[in-house]
Amino acid sequence: MRGKRLNRLIQVISLLRGPGSWNARNLAEHFGTSRRNIYRDLAVLELAGVPYFFDPDFGEGGGYRIRPEWFFPPVGLTDQECLDLAVMTRVAEGRCIPLLDQVCEVRDKLLGTLPPKQQDLIRAAGELFEILNVGMAEHGHARKVMIVLQNALLTRRQINGTYYSPHEKRTVEVNLQPCRVFLCGQAWYLAAHDVEDDKTKLYRVARFKKIELTDQPIDIEPEFSLREMLGNAWTVYRGERDYHVEIEFDPEIAELVAETSWHHTQRLEWRDDGALIFRSTVSGLDEIKNWMMQWGPHARVLKPKELAQEIRGLAEAIVGVYAMDGTQRESMSLSD
Fold first, then answer.
1. 126: how many CB neighbours lie within 10 A of its CB?
2. What are the domain boundaries of the chain?
3. What span, in angstroms and rounded, lies between the C-alpha atoms of 311 and 320?
4. Residue 147: φ, ψ to 5°
5. Helix 103-111 vs helix 116-128: angle between axes, to the nearest 10 degrees?
């Protein structure tokens, strides 16, 4: 039996055990198939010993039901695991974290194997949790790229691709040996060894315009440490040297800052007046500089002086932009 039909059979069982009314007509519409195929599916279920029956009084026009005492042998999920599954599928349905398309299908397959109480728990939890937009980029195209990368990593083969480099403002051809795919912040990244440059670099998955699997094997050592590659980078881009950073947050936002683990090296010290001293060791200043700007006048750089100077320069530039009138801004734009 082909996998597609088996999946449909499992989903039919899940639907017939649920609260909705399902007959041959709306089952065929739901699965995009013919009534004849649905009747064949029901015949297979009967041969498998699934105790379904047609209830003429269940819903408009009647519907098929499965006797409530019957269910697949349970897979042994706890109630908490059911809740976690419900939340994860809400994340997938909301497309907040891309490349989780199959999670909903996993849930539907598992539903048919669970006792009625846990089925109801998953359905109820799915209606109680909402996942709003978390600001991730559109990754529709990235799913195709991810499938190629998954195959490359599992079969240890190189890839060729066309990649848009925002720094060079153009697309470049790359020959890569993939090392790791990871999600950080609001984007998926690929850590890969560039065959031409003989260096391990980071690539943003959504920026690949084309990608293909080659027959060339990966010939670098399989041992790879993402933490070692990233070092003490604030997020993903590692600078040339480490800096010991010390920032003072005023009492107004100190607790808000302390709620989050921003970096694996961070250390917090509370002052008697409610202020917070944030200490960390970071590789490079560009990423932490951008993070600092969101706190505005509520944060002050104590160390290093290079970071304080860069923040001061950005603040002065912002003041300059807002000090201009419309004519001045237009003139500056034209001169650029």
1. 17
2. 3-66, 79-128, 140-230, 242-322
3. 14
4. -60, -40
5. 150
Q: Exposed/middle/buried for 323, CB within 10 Å: 0-12, 13-18, 19+?
A: exposed
242-322: CATH number: 3.30.70
CATH of 3-66, one of 3.10.450.50, 1.25.40.340, 2.60.40.10, 1.10.10.10: 1.10.10.10
Q: Under a CB-based contact definition with an 8 Å cutoff, are residues 176 and 159 in contact? A: yes
Q: What is the pLDDT of residue 67?
A: 86
Beta-sheet pairing, 157-165 with 170-184: antiparallel
Q: Domain 140-230: state its class.
A: mainly beta
pLDDT digit string (tens) for 176-219? Answer: 999 999 888 778 899 999 999 889 999 998 899 999 999 999 98
Residue 84 phi, psi dihedral angles, 5° rounding: -60, -40
Whole-model pTM over 0.70: no
